[in-house]
Structures are given as C-alpha cells and as structure tokens.
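Board notes (copied after class):
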Amino acid sequence: MYKTLFWDNDGVLVDTEKLYFQANALILRQYGINLSLQNYIDFFLKNNSGAWHLLGEVAGDKVFIGKLRNERNNIYRSLLETEDLRIEGIEKILKSLSKRYIMAIVTSSRKEHFEIIHKRTSYLKYFDFSLVREDYNNSKPDPEPYLKALSISKTLPEEALVIEDSERGLISAKSAGIDCWIIKNDLNAAYSNFGNADNIFNRIEEILDFL
C-alpha cells in the first residue's frame, strides 16, 4: 500500500523534545515564568506558537526576544551535544524498513540542531533525504513540509505514510492528504488529541507489525 515513509525527527527518531522543553523552561525561569509541561505541549507541540508571549509586554521587543532565542538555542545545543538522545530499538527499525521503502525525515528542527543530533547517530544513511526548518516557509501544522516531501519523492499522498508524535505534525500530514501514525511518549500521551490519526502506538517497535 505504502511506498514512502516520512518520519518526524524529535520525539520519534531521537528523544530530544524533553531537552527543548528544558532549554525553554530555563530561559523563562530567569524572568519569573514557570513553563509547565502542559504549557509546552500546548504552545509547542500543538500550536507551534512558542512561549515568548508569557513574558508580557516585552514579548513585542524583537531585539530582546532575539537575544533570548539565541540564549535558548545555545542551551539546547549544549544539551544535544551531551545528553542521551537514543530511543531504544529505532536503528533496527530503520535498517529493516529502509530496504523496502523510500524514506525521508521531515522535521521542524533547525538545520544546526539537526546536524548536531545526527552527528551523534548513524541514522541518516537510512534516509533518501531530509527536510529541516530552513527548507520550507511554513512549519507544521501547515501542510507545506509534507507537500514538499511528496514532491521531492515523487510520491502520491495515498502512497505515503507519516510517522509523528505531535498534534501539529498530525494536522500537517492529514492536511497534505497523507495517512499518519502516532507514536505515544511521555510528553504527548496524556494531553494530546490524536483522534484523527490512522493508527496510534505505545511503542515504536509496534509499527513493524503493520508495515
């Protein structure tokens, strides 16, 4: 049925969402703002709106927010370089599926962070191409990332499958006309609405039974 698999990166291939949450929480805490896990899920994983608005009036100061963003990115970069990113069993799955499918990574991760992550993995050899945040104009939940992936891979929507872990990723995939399977994890299991997903799994290994 499927000939092409499009994979989200953070939270699916690597366990990095918790690190991005940590980096944002550390920056905001300096200004008396407690970024809760629910805040992070709502603002980042569901709506892609970020959390700078929690700072109030200063959120309109582009220079100040730019400074905070750079500080946040530096913290995140340091965490990516030092913390354990592995999701158990993922390389075995990629090795198996890459023999039978066209595969691509479609991520909202910035190129700089994506490259740091995959210098520490051996995963890119299993993929035909990758799309990072700089490769398109409108991020998930907009369908543009997955529509571009369809175009590059010369795949019809009905021939592709997206593997995601966030609401905004699910919306992006479905808006592009592509089936989407969701992998549950510690961040999304209790708070996200995946009613539109074509399949939901508790563990990444389970997808092998359906592919």
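Comment from the instructor: Residues 4-15+87-209 form a domain with the Rossmann fold fold (CATH 3.40.50.1000). The chain has two domains: 4-15+87-209, 17-82.
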